[in-house]
Write a structure and sequence with these properties.
It is a single chain. By secondary structure, the chain is of the alpha+beta class. It has helices spanning about 5-25, 80-90, 125-145, and strands at about 30-40, 40-50, 55-60, 65-75, 100, 110-115. It has a 6-stranded antiparallel beta sheet. It is elongated, with a radius of gyration of 16 Å.
């Protein structure tokens, strides 16, 4: 099990994450806004602009062991519930470091955790941001057509 980060280590990670998110906002056209939403624990919203799903946000929360991230994917399906959940469970095998989960009010989220020791300059945060964008853009259209089929007729 990972050890707990000291207050100094958490402060350093918080600074690194704030700077990294700001850089993404400036350099990545898919990242349209970053907002710090909390100090205890440190947390940020990263807003994306996509094509398959026009706008969505990911919430990042820094803990003593890991960086938790979550993005709202879809509300609970209106129809074809078994096929919808089977489809997402089959997609889970393709996801790296995150998974589709059922959350509040049975809505679907993509969630994951990144150990604090991996929050470094070598690109793990880039991979997480890119994966959230890629998975949402890739899997949203089919999932929406299965769970909300009558809306597409």
């Amino acid at each position: 099990m990972e050890g707990l980060a000291s207050p100094a280590e958490l402060q350093e990670l918080e600074g690194f994450l704030s700077a990294a998110f700001a850089t993404h906002q400036l350099q990545d056209p898919a990242v349209v806004a970053v907002e710090k939403i909390g100090d205890r624990p440190p947390a940020w919203y990263v807003r994306f602009c996509g094509e398959a799903k026009a706008n969505y946000s990911a919430e990042f929360t820094l803990g003593q062991r890991s960086l938790h991230f979550s993005t709202y994917f879809l509300p609970p399906p209106e129809e074809n519930e078994n096929e919808f959940h089977r489809h997402l469970l089959q997609r889970n095998v393709k996801l790296f470091g995150m998974a589709f989960v059922v959350g509040l009010e049975n809505a679907i989220y993509i969630e994951g955790r990144l150990p604090n020791r991996l929050i470094t300059e070598d690109g793990e945060l880039d991979r997480v941001l890119g994966s959230i964008y890629s998975y949402t853009e890739s899997f949203f259209p089919t999932a929406a057509k299965i769970g909300f089929a009558s809306r597409f007729k």
